[in-house]
Structures are given as C-alpha cells and as structure tokens.
Amino acid sequence: MKVLGIYGSGRKGGNSDKLLDHALEGAESAGAVVSKVYARDLKVSGCRACGGCEKTGKCVIKDDMNSVYPQFEEADIVLLASPVYFYGVSGQVKLLIDRAQAMWSKRMIEKTPEGRKTFDKGVGYLIAVGATKGQNLFEGVQLTAKYFLMPWI
Fold first, then answer.
1. Sheet holding 33-38, edge to edge
2. CB 106 within 8 Å of CB 57
3. Looking at the 3D structure of the chain, how many domains does it have?
4. Residue 84: what pLDDT?
5. Taking a C-beta distance cutoff of 8 angstroms, is the pair 121, 69 a contact?
6. DSSP secondary-structure letter at 45?
7. What is the CATH number of the domain that holds 102?
8. β strands within 84-132, DSSP E
C-alpha cells in the first residue's frame, strides 16, 4: 500500500506538520510505503485555465508539479494536512490542488460516462488545524479537500 502525505503548511514543524508526521508514522508501522510532498518547498505556478489538460490529461506547465503527479498516480491513500487560513487551505497547498485539475481531465478522458460515477482509487483524508473559534471554521477546508481528494474516496 502506498500512502502520500501532503504537507500544506508554510511553516515547517507547525501543528499540521506534526499531526501528519504522526499519521504517516502509523502508516509506516503498519507496512505502508510512505512518500511526502512539502507544498511549501515546491515552485508551482497557478492553473492558467488554458484547457491544455483537457486534450491530453497532462498539464502543459513545466514546474515542480511534474514530480508530484506521479506520486498522485501511485498513491492508494492521500493524507492532506493544512492549517486553516481565512476558512480555507493554505495558499501553498491551494496551488497544488488547483493544478490537480489535470488529474480530473485525465479521468474524463480515460473513463466512460458511467465509469466516472464511481471512485475506485483508494482513500483520502484531511487533517486541518485552526486557531480561531469561528462557527464554520472548517467548512471551506472540508469542501476543498472533498473535491480534491474525491479520486481517492
């Protein structure tokens, strides 16, 4: 089993990093092969909405995302960790999520309309931490994670 951990905090060693470290340690102790992506260390451009990936299933932008896409493809489980900023994920991880549009386009190309109704890839989880007490503090993060992680749930 392959588990991909996505570290979404801009701050090394922050609370979301620590929680994800513990989750990945547990996965490793259970025999999983773990890989890690630190969004804060990636040089990633935003999605240009150019439509290039709709034709090929691959993003036309050449940057650090090219090393992340294969990890997405191989993962059976994805663990996404992010602090909550303004009721959403961090900017660093949002860039990564937006660029995952190429994965959705690939799915549209490869699967039949009937096949697109099912998600059989694996499992996705969210670890989110926030410092304020807003009533709906985690709703934005949960919705973003839900649709990003959908290929794994």
1. 33-38, 2-7, 77-83, 123-129
2. yes
3. 1
4. 96
5. no
6. P
7. 3.40.50.360
8. 123-129
Average pLDDT, the chain: 91
Of residues 18 and 108, more confidence is placed in: 18
Identify the domain containing residue 71 by its residue range. Answer: 2-152
Q: What secondary structure letter does DSSP report for 34?
A: E
CA distance 88 to 138: 8
Q: What is the token pair recorded at 142? A: 């949960």
Global confidence as pTM:
0.91
Cα–Cα dist 92/142, whole Å: 17
Q: Render pLDDT for 53-85 as a digit per residue (tens, 0 to 9).
A: 999 999 999 999 999 999 998 999 999 999 999
Share of the chain above pLDDT 90, in %: 77
Q: How is residue 139 written in tokens?
A: 């709703």
HEC states along 46-62? CCCCCCHHHHHCCCCCC
Residue 6 and residue 37 in contact, taking contact as beta carbons nearer than 8 Å: yes
